[in-house]
Amino acid sequence: MPASQRDVRNRISAVKNIQKITRAMEMVAAARLRRAEQRIEALRPYVGAIRRMTRDAAEATGYVPSVPILSERETVSTAGLLLVAGDRGLAGAFNSNVVRAGIAVGREYEARGLSVLYFASGRRPSSSLTFRGLEPRESFIGFSDRPAFADARRIAERLMVAYVDREVDRVEVFYNGYISPMSQVVRRETLLPLSEATLLQDEQASGRALGDGQADGERGEVRQAEEQRADGQTQAEPAARRIYIEYEPDPEAVLKRLVPDYVKLSIFRALLESTASEHGARMTAMRNASQNAGELIKDLTLEMNRARQAEITQEIMEVVAGAEGLG
Amino acid sequence: MAHSKFPVQVLTPEGEVFGEDVEMVSTRTGLGSIGLLANHEPLLGTLVPGELRLYRSETEIVRFAQAEGYIQFLHNKALLLVEEALPPDQLDRELLSRRLADANEAAARAPEGSEEQAAALREARRCETFLTIGV
Q: Could you tell me which residues come within 8 angstroms of residue A311 by beta carbon, excluding any fewer than 6 positions away?
């Protein structure tokens, strides 16, 4: 039996209401995405400057001092996995992709006889892990919309404490890397132990992981100034090209302070990329939902017209039958 | 007497918070308070939580609550990299008090000499310093 006009009309109005919500959510996500992209850009000059300082301090000491988070463990018995995703859903496969990738690696480690400790950033990965019986060791929630550096520092401090105090022997992070509003890819990176190569590798090679990339006006300016000064001196003595810098307290202490910053910045970068990815994924998901709602409205309108036509036809037939009966 | 000015840039991971010419920078390093005037000798130092003062003139001072970071003075330009630089009126004192209590509790609970205790003490020191910075 065809649905009555009123039923179909009610369904159309319900779908229209949903479409209004999905359209609004799409627009909100688009606005937040732009801000999230700007925040990734804003991190670049800071990371560039940290890298320059590290290089200068390492040149002054001539070696990288021994810092606990740089030392690799001979045997790895416990792995820490940090899953970074969102506090909210309605963003397509954004949350589940990270959780799935993290759990797959966790299972692989367990199959090799390692213990696995999960850490979660975001309500979704935290509840997904709990639901699967893999209670996270610690969850960091409430900031996935707009993470502050203080949030990244809190997570980094917790993980470094776990590493230095030997709760874990290795830490990896899983997050949605931001490529474009339409495209995100799950990235897996080793956070701890930090490799010396990460500290001293050239800026372009390490650009993606820490977010300093290539475009950095401020860096260009300082280097240019240094080069101008260097040009005035003899080329035969590279050592003389360097300016004497007073270190406070000393280059080694400065370097020791700089090393943990790389972990904090890697996590901050992951949080910022994850946030941009979340807004991008939500924008796409909501756009699809709005389109689907539009199609559904079209189908239902057609159905309602048919029902109305059927009712009219029925009424005409009744009138004709009545007239015939009278005649 | 007015001092000559020099450019200062204060960067945080969340972006630039200050970029102007000033007469003097006053901040706190691992060794104590420091004041930098134009033409200071090249310097690279670590910063600890404290009050950062940027003197546009003797009377016009821009203040920030600074977290841990670094200061570099090179080619008559100062570059400060700090994890956080917040105007004093934007400090959430209630949240800071809560975090200070949590950090102190965590430091007391953590094993003596552990990294956990060191991290909690760093957090406590930061919160405590921020709370002493007046509006």
A: A5
